[in-house]
Amino acid sequence: NGMLFVFPKSEIQKFWMKDMKFPIDIIWIKEDGVVGMIVGAEPETGPDYQIYSSPEPVNKVLEVNAGQVQLLGIKVGDAVELK
């Protein structure tokens, strides 16, 4: 379970933790594969928020509860299939 963001084209995507109440893992997805991740992004209060940028242009970003990347053994190069 998580929140999937789908973008019309692959670009460097930037996320921040403004107004978040709990830590998350951010999974960067290009087409049908994992190209990177941020593990354990912590909630922040402003005004200087950490900006998390994808390591390359991506067209999907999946946010999941912190710890899910490790629990599920997700790694760069894993295939992604949307159903």
Total number of helices: 1
Dominant shape: globular
Low-confidence stretches: none
Structural class of the helix and strand makeup? mainly beta
CA radius of gyration is 12 Å
In round numbers, the mean pLDDT is: 95
- Strands of the widest sheet, in order across it, are 1-6-3-4
Percent of residues in beta strands: 35-45%
What is the succession of H and E elements? EEEEEEH
State the helical fraction. Answer: under 10%
Terminal Cα span:
13 Å
Number of strands: 6
Major sheet size, sense and barrel closure: 4 strands, antiparallel
Overview of this structure, please?
- By secondary structure, the protein is mostly beta strands.
- The protein is built from one helix and six strands.
- The strands form two sheets. The chain has a four-stranded antiparallel beta sheet. Strands 2-5 form a two-stranded antiparallel ribbon.
- The two termini are 13 Å apart.
- The model has no long low-confidence stretch (mean pLDDT 95).
Topology, element by element:
Layout: E1 3-11, E2 14-15, E3 24-30, E4 33-41, E5 52-53, E6 58-65, H1 68-72
Descriptors:
4-stranded antiparallel sheet; 83 residues; 1 helix; mainly beta; two-stranded antiparallel sheet
How would you briefly describe this protein structure?
The chain is mostly beta strands and about 80 residues long.
